[in-house]
Amino acid sequence: MLTTKKSNWKEFIIEKILQFSALISIFTTLGILYVLISESIDFFKEVPLSEFLFDTQWTPLFSEKHFGILPLLSGTLLTSFIAILVAVPVGLSIAIFLNEYAPKSLRKILKPVLEVLAAIPTVVYGYFALMVVTPFLQTFIPNLSGFNALSPGIVMGIMILPMVASLSEDALYAIPYSLREASYGMGATKLQTVFRVLIPSASSGIIVSIILAISRAFGETMIVAIAAGQQPNFTFDPTVPIETITTYIVQVSLGDVVQGSIEYKTIYAAGIALFVLTFILNNISYFIRKKYQKYQL
Amino acid sequence: MNAGNLQLNRWKDIIFKWYGLLCTLAGVLILIVFLYTIIIDGWDRLNWQFFTSLPSRRPSSAGILVPLLGTLWIMVLTTIIAVPIGVAAAIYLEEYGQKSRFASFIEVNIANLAGVPSIIYGLLALEIFVRIMGLGRSLLSGALTLSLLILPIVIVSTREALKSVPKTIREASFALGATKWQTIWNAVLPSAAGGILTGVILAISRAIGETAPLVVIGAMLYITTIPTHPLDDFSVLPIQIYNWLSRPQKGFIENATAAIIVLLAITFLLNGIAIYLRNKWQSKVKW
């Protein structure tokens, strides 16, 4: 009897230890919220929210200070838009090809090779954008600046390509084979089956992959920090230097900014803007995924 | 439907097939071009001096000893911190709290954390680890930051591995009179070990390539001393690469390229081990 009691205690303690480990993720979230909100409150005591949202200049590090997030937001949106323009059509085509057209042997070789693209560190992609892609683009876009939004955007697209391809592929793979057979039985070609049966059935999975890709592009830091120029311009011109929200945080972190100063607080204000954007996207994708799992065929 | 239409649709089908192949090969081709250019540009710089030298203001005498050791330190510390916590959390969610409200709340939370940009973790760490806990810009701060960052990856992949262990294994253990924890420790974890290890290695490989959060906590210093203690200041390979890339001299760009080769070699080695383990484990275990 004694041993049972002892082992009951042991079981109980172990369960509590495991539970505590699981709680660390909650603490992390609370920590992120606490840090971002507490530092931003100080920031917004000095800068009115209207200036933060609507001023078109971002110059906290200059003597004449402006605190408008719009230039950083336009930089983030521009590079992400270019990345999505590359990653989604190509990624989806790859997913369709590998799932519906490619012979099994070819698929077995190509899939791991594409996954290598996802394993490359982002700082290496930054190098490619700066040293390989920008000079290459300059050969046929002569007025392209050495730092610009186009080249990091494209490279970011290549980086998130495997993610879009693999998530879309999972969505296509989950469709029961009978749907394809029914379509072929009606005399449809593979292409017609893909566009009229498979993509509509897998649409929620594909949408999730696109949303996650956008969220990933918003948060990407090193590629833009290296190749986009760190100049907050309120523009949608992809050939000139820009700055994203993430890059600004890096720029301030590199400099000697006094802790507690308004410049220091700006990185938390920029951080909360980025966090809100990605938080909304991640939650949309999470709930689509949950709903989709429930009604899966 | 007339014959011409049918023919047209067949042609469209064939064209799309080739277009799909082209897209796939384009991805592969880009990878080859990238790898080719860095090897051409950086290979000559990879010599013994490069591996054993401290940082220097002259590109030709600078080396990666400090950041390389920093990366190895970070690898070890992050593994020690993130793996036990991540695996424990996964065991709790998968084996104990499966359908409870608490567990599903944690699950949503982990899904959310996995999507938080890495630079936000840097902001968190700057305030909590560097300032409030007073750890400064040390190896330990860096490892704690990266541990939080990879925790969702470790938890999700461990849960997948635990899920793939069939219920019968657990039932057999319970039938022999084992307690819940004895079952998990002696029956479930050994069966899931291969899958857990694969996930852990991939997560660590992600951590050592990470730059942004470490830049935010201030690891971008000019450090000329070898880190010997978890509370020492540090630099890591990605940060050294970024540092060299942001300098105008050509010699530093060449150094950056050579350091990229080293970083990629470590990353690919880890990924290769993970893939090998996954294949070996999948072929060995047949339920």
Can you describe this structure?
The complex is a heterodimer of chains A (297) and B (287). Chain A is mainly alpha-helical and 297 residues long. Chain A is built from twelve helices and no strands. In chain A, helix 9 packs antiparallel against helix 12 (262-294). The mean pLDDT of chain A is 89. In chain B, 77% of the residues lie in helices and 0% in strands. The model of chain B has no long low-confidence stretch (mean pLDDT 89). Chain B has helices at 3-42, 48-52, 65-96, 101-115, 118-132, 139-163, 167-175, 180-209, 212-216, 237-245, 250-284. Chain B is globular and about 70 Å long. In chain B, helix 5 packs across helix 6 (139-163), helix 7 (167-175) runs antiparallel to helix 8 (180-209) and helix 10 packs antiparallel against helix 11 (250-284). At the A-B interface, helix 1, helix 3, helix 4, helix 5 and helix 6 of A face helix 1, helix 3, helix 4, helix 5 and helix 6 of B.
Write a short abstract of this structure.
The complex is a heterodimer of chains A (297) and B (287). Chain A is an all-alpha fold.
Strand residues, percent of chain A: under 5%
Distance between the termini of chain A: 51 Å
Question: From the alpha-carbon coordinates, what is the Rg of chain A to the nearest angstrom?
Answer: 24 Å
What is the arithmetic mean of pLDDT of chain B?
89
Shape type of chain B:
globular
- Largest sheet data of chain A: none
Q: What's the overall average pLDDT of chain A, rounded?
A: 89
> In percent, how helical is the residue content of chain A?
over 70%
Spell out the helices and strands of chain A N to C: HHHHHHHHHHHH
Radius of gyration of chain B: 24 Å
The global form of chain A is: globular
How many alpha or pi helices of chain B?
11
The helix-and-strand class of chain A reads: mainly alpha
Order of helices and strands of chain B: HHHHHHHHHHH
Low-confidence stretches of chain A: none
Give the termini separation of chain B. Answer: 51 Å
